[in-house]
Amino acid sequence: MEQLTYHDTDETVFFEQLDNGLSVYLLQKKGYEKTYATFTTRYGSIDNRFKKDGDWITVPDGIAHFLEHKMFESEQGDVFQEFGRLGASANAFTSFSRTAYLFSATSLIEQNLETLIDFVQDPYFTPESVEKEKGIITQEIQMYQDNPGWRLFFGLIESMYANHPVRIDIAGTPESIDQITADDLYTCYRTFYHPSNMVLFVVGNINPAETLELIKQNQAKKDYTDRPAIERDYGTEPKEVARPRFELELDVKTPKVLIGYKDQSLRGEEQVRREMTSELLLHLLFDQTSSTYLELYDDGLIDDTFSFDYSSEEEFAFATFGMETEDPDRFIEAYEKLLATRPSFSETEVVRKRNMMQGKFLRSLNSPEFIANQFSRHALAGTNLFALPTLIASITKEEIEARFDELFALENRAVSIVKPYV
Amino acid sequence: MSQSFEAWKKEGTTYHLVPTEKFKTTTVLVTFSAPLEEKTLTSRAILPYIMEKSTAAYPSMKALREPLETLYDAGLYADASKFGEEHVISFQLDVVRGDLVRHETLLAEALDLLEQMIFYPDLTEGGFREQFVKQEKRLHALRISSLYDDKMRFAQQRLLELMAPGEAVSLSSLGTLEALEEISGQTLRDTYRSMIEDDRIDVFVVGHVTRDEMEDALSFLPSHSEKPSHYIPALKQVAGVKRSSETQPIKQGKLHLGYRVAVDPTSADSIRMQIVNGLFGGFPHSKLFMNVREKESLAYYAASRYAALNGALYVYSGVETEKAERAETIIKEQLVELKAGNFTDEELTQTKAMLINARRQILDQPGQLIGWLNGSKMRGLTLEDEIHIIETATREDVIRLAAKIELEAVYLLRGEE
Prior knowledge:
The structure holds two protein chains of two kinds.
Chain A: E1 2-6, E2 11-17, E3 23-28, E4 35-41, E5 49-52, E6 55-58, H1 63-71, E7 73-74, E8 77-78, H2 79-85, E9 89-94, E10 99-105, H3 109-120, H4 127-145, H5 148-160, H6 174-178, H7 182-192, E11 198-204, H8 208-220, E12 245-250, E13 256-263, H9 268-286, H10 293-298, E14 307-313, E15 316-324, H11 328-338, H12 347-364, H13 368-380, H14 388-394, H15 397-407, E16 413-420
Parallel strand pairs in A: 3-11, 12-16
Antiparallel strand pairs in A: 1-2, 2-3, 4-10, 4-11, 5-6, 7-8, 9-10, 13-15, 13-16, 14-15
Helix pairs in contact in A: 1-7, 3-8, 9-15, 12-14
Chain B: E1 6-10, E2 13-19, E3 25-35, H1 38-51, H2 61-70, E4 75-83, E5 86-96, H3 106-119, H4 130-146, H5 151-163, H6 177-181, H7 185-198, E6 200-207, H8 211-217, E7 242-248, E8 253-261, H9 268-282, H10 287-295, E9 299-307, E10 312-319, H11 324-339, H12 345-362, H13 366-376, H14 383-392, H15 395-402, E11 405-415
Parallel strand pairs in B: 2-6, 7-11
Antiparallel strand pairs in B: 1-2, 3-5, 3-6, 4-5, 8-10, 8-11, 9-10
Helix pairs in contact in B: 1-7, 9-12, 9-15, 10-11, 12-14
């Protein structure tokens, strides 16, 4: 067992890769009541085309999310109930590139941990239960269809990406999930749920040595044979956006606008640096303390409904910002003008933003959920969450300025608008 | 659990302290509470939004937010909320522990900003600056109208109005567009002065600090005579079931049911009532989830929430409009089952375990700790007491308390294509 201590954050992580390929990370949080564990596979909504027995196959959209729902059904019944009996709450989520199963509990940690590992490693689907799930997931899709923010976001993603499967709604469509069969689910399961494609993270008031031993014994009981690396196909994506503008009418009172800049993603540590540099840049431009904020605020071009984000996973990356405004076109024009010329940032500003980002990161370490989810995300990409404070401190003003020039090119830009019915 | 809690009164202010080293942060919340009244609600709702944007010494958002960023993203916010029949304006500071970033005076510097925000607002024009007030009024109007876009909140608001028409408890905590019109920098100054002079003050602190350090750091708080609390409303009688529905161009309908709960919110029974709510619709193993969602596939979600202070229990569900009637029947049946004692020992044990689990987890989040301290101050019970009450509750308690739940209102937001 490897022990990694990070003085910048006052945290220690224990790591071991088991014989079957599973990466196990354990973090002891002294004084915490809760233990939180996530079991994550590098498999999300974008993994809809991959090699099976040497041949490329395409599976229905939304299947990773569908599979996540169905995993909670075991031959013995509903796994949620089993966690409930053990006093734990369980959940799961599917993102573009990951599916995570998790529980949090304050007692019976060993039993809960075994339950988590065992249910994720024991698929059980029948044609009947697959059919029944379609009704539930169709309702879930409908609920998102009524959510203006969700429609705005996917309107933008579809505009930025021509081919990459990130453009597909994570839950799929009622039509696409209707095609899913129990056999499809087994195919995806066997491809992506091998221990070598997964990370187990446990954080809480645990004894790392004992917890690792329990996990090892559990895994030793199961037959896993080595698997070749997974081959995935995300298509060929041009650098430019697919369409510059998208508009949709929905039952809203105030129009919403979201602007996206499509970025090129790098690999590993390089992408983490790019992500942090981009976040510093967006904060410098759009925070209440930026040199342009007051002017934008007085012009009604920025307010409490304004938000920005930089999203990146392997294979795709983009920056977004937007807000609710009566006049989306005025908003779009103003920001086009604003981002046409790079503002000059002062050293003082950059130092202040680095402090801010470091503080934000340290504050989020109060949350076991943040640590487990973000650490797993980094681990699956081959990077290290706890290296962030040092990394942030090393980003220079010049790097941030270079980021501005790369990111804000007009051919990288798409806009999405949701407005009231006329 | 070995966490200690301290509470004491000094010069009219009640202090609550949770001394702990386990967090990376120190959190301080100062609340100002006044009786909930329609005539002051909107003004008190917008006041914190204005106060958090500038102070006399930091006369712009930029000037105020810059030092907070330098202080490692110190959070400093003001907010307004309803708490039973009180209106609460709160100011919250949370700041990274100085030792983690080798900045020993971090907390003291951040507390100075909290003091500036509460006691030295920018009143250079004789009132709050009209320019800021005008901007905030525009934004607040947007907040009020965006309630319409969030269908779950919209339906809940309609349900509250149906249950208590014309009463302050059923008003949106944001206030009304009509009252917003009348607000100016001058009227807000009066609202502010009344808050400082008349409101009851409570202070909550979670972090690596002692009682003496805390009193010393917050010595800027005014000395008051002790103020009474008003938050506990009288229990209400149900006179027949009220119904209402509307249609909007949405895909998923919203069916909300409001029940009255004849249980004193300061009693131990109000803790036990959470077991009843848990069995009914509080968890994924609850009757509502199992029967409305899983067995009948009638809804994407169906859940219930017990609002002890309001003596009410609400059921929320997202349904296909044509299945709303069926969903309502099944929802009502689940309560009948509970009242008749038709639940297993396993369901009861599981519900108790989940509630206890949730209570223990409160200790792991500063915000939740403060929320619990605030929400439970009326009972005078410790977290351990609450856990004991839950552990020792019986099947008979559940049946006895389920009988105190009575349907008062049904609201349906219909979808149309």
